Amino acid sequence: MTGVTPDTPPNAPEVSSAADLIDGASAPTPPHQPPHGTHKSGGAGFWVLAFGSMGVVFGDIGTSPLYAFKEALHIAATDGVTRAEILGVVSLALWALILVVTVKYVFFIMRADNNGEGGVLSLMALAQRALGKRTRIIFILGVIGAALFYGDAVITPAMSVMAAVEGLRTIPALEHAINGQVVLLIAGALLISLFMIQSRGTAKVGFFFAPVCILWFAIMGALGVYKLIDQPQILLAFNPYYAVKFLAEHSLAGFLVMGAVFLTVTGAEALTMDMGHFGRWPIQAAWTFFVLPCLVLNYLGQGAFAFDVLIQSELSGIAFEERNWFFEMAPLSLRLPLVLFAGLATVVASQAVITGAFSLTQQAIQLGLLPRLTVLRTSETQSGQIYVPQLNTMLLVGVLVVMVGFQTSSALAHAYGLAVCGTMAVTTLMAVIVMRQMWKWNWAKVLAFMIPFLLLDMAFLTANSLRFFSGGWLPILIGAGLFTIMATWVRGSQILFDKARKESVLLTDLVEMLKSRPPHRVAGTAIFLTSDSEAAPVALMHNLKHNKVLHEKNIILSVKTLNVPRVHESERVMIERLDEDFKKVSINYGFMESPNLPKALGLCRKQGLKFDIMATSFFLGRRSVVPAANSGMPLWQDKLFIFLMRNAANPTDFFHIPPGRVVEMGTQVSV
Predict the structure, then answer these.
(1) Domain for residue 222, yes or no?
(2) Are 267 and 58 in contact (CB under 8 A)?
(3) Fewer CB under 10 Å: which end of the chain, C or N?
(4) pLDDT in tens, 521-547
């Protein structure tokens, strides 16, 4: 079994961007740049972005009322239900929204943005920068958080869309016609349609979906008020006493209810993950002044409806009957339109995690955690709006498999919380590093943040771990798979890098040798791509060995990914002159940028390095990689690494090099 990889990085050309994370090398000094996204938040643009964020950022958390209260009350009502228990469940839901989403994410975590970008990998890069060095523990935390997010991205679309379609069963005329198979068919058709339109871009999808989401939240709030008027005593749920009392009196059952209540905050990570698309202030304003009030009203309304049903059952002497609380709040005449609109809203909900997964994948590729994948830009003006075709296909397949495997939204609810809890705990730990090292908070302030929120994360994590055998294993399995892939890619890249460094000749030594024994010279410019600018590129050595020629001008080109989202154009290109024949060019990119070498090389003119790119040859070293018995990785991991390399995007396409100007020269190496 063999694989082929370029002499340039197995990934983006800076192999060391991932390798250094493990080695503990010094972090690169980030170039000065204005925070990304800050220009987005003024004037009319602010409201346009706040409007657009409704269709992308809040879809996931906005569909939680479809299933969160229903699942939590179902667990609480296993041995009957009381008014205090209904108050307790609603109180837990409200305070989860207030503490986890509003206080933790909106007021704190969103402030820890990396030049406007958010998400677990962006926070990892920021934490590394705050420490001034790259550490193994931060790297591992970041990879764990990223891997678990992909579990969330697979489960969320399946669960939310199925929950909406199951609402058809609350309509008496359709109750017997809508069985499990019909639900799966309808949900599958909706999800396939969603994934097929991703190539049209975040902006178009977001602004098309924004009116849907705004109307959806307004409907939720109105439904809540409709029921709240009948039972205003549910407002007592704002008192945290009822939440604490419920947990104190129910021990294990209380923890199980907490696991279900956690469903109310699913989608909180999307608030940070999508900051690069819309900016921090528009997202914060949309949440605080519109989304949160509508969610609160709806949960209060569902609790009030449960009060009504409980009172009626007590008066009639009939056992308390569990309902699909969200849909049955609506009058029967409006239920079918509500179900249909809920289906559309849950399709929108899935957009939040899909968009987040695209952003996360681009960051992982640039940081050297994943092989090259094709990343397409879907907007000429908004650099954060991207589409990853391979990931889109993999997510669609994963969502459909999960949906068919679990059959119902209730079964999927058991699988959901563990991945999100894990990511939230990782986020808290890395935010603490940023607060202490970058914001220079004293330990009293840091601990005042860390202790309550870490305890809250651990409580939710413990509660959801009780559901491990009933479905919680799924996101852990997905996360473990992604962690294995990332760890294998980073470790394999490191081995390949070290092996190449060991067997290479220093570039400075080669320059001196060529002065004493000059080869035949040919006109033109040759650019040699390499991941190690200190060593002579393999392609250059092969060109000298086999063709026995040296070009008139020779550029040793390396591409580096820094711990910032975007690099200012003035700091894009760095040139170092070795002698008349050789120059080293370093091109810097942020982890949210896609490399475009011809465009970057055009900046060389401003620094006095002039050449015609269409009369220039790009030399790529191609390594045919075979597994070795003593490579430092088990044989199965060698084969996985080789498989990943063989399926990585072509470097010519990835770096946007004109195909007719590329010369590839190969060699074989074992890992």
Answers:
(1) yes
(2) yes
(3) N
(4) 888 888 888 888 888 888 888 888 888
Element (H, E) at 618: strand 616-626
Q: Length of the chain, please?
A: 671
Of the given ranges (102-111, 523-532, 619-628), which has the lowest mean pLDDT? 619-628
Alpha helices per DSSP H over 466-564: 473-503, 507-516, 538-542
- Whether 30 maps to a domain, the answer reads no
Its pTM stands at: 0.78
Residues in Cβ contact with 552 at an 8 Å cutoff, skipping those fewer than 6 apart: 521, 522, 523, 524, 525, 581
Paired with 669 in beta bridges are: 625
Question: Is the domain of 399 the same as that of 284?
Answer: yes
Helix (H) or strand (E) holding 640: helix 635-646
| Pairing mode, strands 376-377 and 662-670 | unpaired
Q: What share of the chain is helix, strand, coil (3-state, %, to 5)?
A: 65, 10, 25
The secondary structure of 368-407, three-state, reads: CCCCCCCCEECCCCCCCCEECHHHHHHHHHHHHHHHHHHC
27 vs 564: CA distance, rounded Å: 11
Other beta carbons less than 10 A from residue 389's beta carbon: 13
Which of 453, 471, 489 delimits the end of a domain? 471
> How large is the average pLDDT for residues 582-602?
85
Neighbours of 606 (CB within 10 A): 11
Does residue 33 lie within any of the structural domains? no
Residue 520 host element (H or E): strand 520-529
Q: What is the pLDDT of residue 20?
A: 41
Query: Is residue 165 domain-shared with residue 289, that is, in the same domain?
Result: yes
Number of domains in the chain: 2
**Looking at residue 249, which CATH number applies to its domain?**
1.20.1740.10
- 501 and 407 inside one domain: no
- Where does a domain end: 455, 471, 487? 471
Say whether both 605 and 462 belong to one domain. no
Residue 142's CB is within 10 A of a number of other CB atoms, namely 27
Q: CA-CA distance, 582 to 569, in Å (whole number)?
A: 24
Measured CA distances, 324 to 88, 213, 445 (Å): 19, 21, 43
- Least confident span in 226-240, 382-396, 578-592: 382-396
Query: Residue 308: which H helix or E strand, with range?
Result: helix 292-316
Cα 342 to Cα 165, 240, 473, distances in angstroms = 8, 30, 28
DSSP category for residue 441: -
Coil/strand/helix, residue 278: helix
SS3 string, 560-584, reads: EEECCCCCCHHHCEEEEECCCCEEE
443 and 539 inside one domain? no
Say if residue 85 is in the same domain as residue 171.
Answer: yes
Q: Which residue has the higher pLDDT, 469 or 90?
A: 90
Helices 292-316 and 83-96 meet at what angle, rounded to 10?
170
Q: Residue 3: helix, strand or coil by DSSP?
A: strand
Mark whether 168 and 286 lie in a shared domain: yes
Greatest Cα pair distance in the chain:
104
Q: Do 509 and 432 share a structural domain?
A: no
Name the H helices within 166-274.
180-196, 202-228, 240-261, 268-273
Q: Which residues pair with 376 in a beta bridge?
A: 387
CA distance 501 to 532: 8
Q: Which domain holds residue 593?
A: 497-670
In a domain, residue 56? The reply is no
